[in-house]
Amino acid sequence: MRALVMTAPGGSENSEVREVGTPRPGPGEVSVDVAYAGLNFVDVMARRGDAGYTVEWPHRPGLEIAGTVRELGAGVTGLAVGDRVAAVPTGRGLAEVAVARAELVVPVPDGVPLREAAAAPLGLATSLLLLTDAGRFTPGDTVLVHSAGGGIGSAVAQLVPLLGGGRLIGTVGRPEKAAGVQEGGYHLALPRDENLAAAVRAATDGRGVDLVLDPLGTTALALDLDVAAPGGRIVLFGNAGGGAVDALPPAGRLLSGNLTIGGFSHRGLVAAAPDRVAAATARILGFLADGRLTFPVNELASLAEVPAAHDLLAAGHATGKYVARVGA
Ligand SMILES: NC(=O)c1ccc[n+]([C@@H]2O[C@H](COP(=O)([O-])OP(=O)(O)OC[C@H]3O[C@@H](n4cnc5c(N)ncnc54)[C@H](OP(=O)(O)O)[C@@H]3O)[C@@H](O)[C@H]2O)c1
């Protein structure tokens, strides 16, 4: 079978599609004939060689897939060969066949295209869990989302109205992305420059925001604290730049501001609470099935197109969510 292989740290020059052995499921696992696989920034972090993201080279990326069940490992119940499923694989998802733990394999309802389903297990599930679990979103909240033009940012804009609605302010690294972010559902999109704090305060009549979703390590944390309203929650969920992160602010800053800083890790939940990832994936697939959620994705025609798309993500030029067509 064919799979994407990253041969060494770097860029697309070190990625290639290769023939590799077809994996078989172990006990409690399921193998899937992959129809579509989602691309995520974590693939880029692994490709760059960020600490903790690559166990060995060559590296086989890919952490969300949709397709049909190929084979059941010993002890797996409730699934059958041929079922349409979405899953978080045990890595190596950008391939024609991938293996996943059965508890992270979720049936795809009739009528939901596998193309959109491939964005559910990591990207859309993360966006939902950021809002509901980590962010404790309540209807009417004002939410500030950094890197609003990407896969997670675009999904948050689709999900907030489904959760009761709120006011959405997005930030972008490049001003030219702002118009697309507003077209994607944000009420306001702002460049991350020296005027950002003042612009957020002006946009909220000086009150500030109830929730900040921040994947920028700690580079924007001082701003987040500045613009959070009393009772505000700041959720740190990434380190796009890949550098060292700073210490958290003194407790007094949180006490005096009535603020909460929290963290979110999909990988952490996959390891320690996979039921929560599966439940979020199933909820997303339900939204897609009943038509409440429509989530446009950028389709790549084959695995061969993935390295160039990873380059776009790495350079901060990607817009929206990317999925690659892999099999039939
Ligand atoms: N904690 C978790 O479980 C979890 C799960 C999924 C994703 N994430 C994080 O969420 C973020 C969005 O993920 P995604 O898959 O949807 O990717 P994405 O948003 O499509 O692409 C990443 C975005 O990060 C921004 N960025 C900021 N600094 C950057 C840098 N030094 N190099 C490259 N890009 C930089 C860019 O947007 P701007 O320049 O417009 O800011 C870029 O478009 C990523 O940081 C990812 O690691 C975390």
Helix content: 25-40%
Helical stretch count?
Answer: 11
Write the CATH homologous superfamily of the largest domain: Medium-chain alcohol dehydrogenases, catalytic domain
Q: How many distinct beta strands? A: 15
CATH topology value of the largest domain: Quinone Oxidoreductase, Chain A, domain 1
| Main β-sheet description | 7 strands, mixed
In the CATH hierarchy, what is the architecture of the largest domain at level 2?
Alpha-Beta Complex
Pfam family, one: ADH_zinc_N
Protein name: Zinc-binding dehydrogenase
InterPro entries: ADH-like_C, ADH-like_N, ER, GroES-like_sf, NAD(P)-bd_dom_sf
Region (Disordered): 1-26
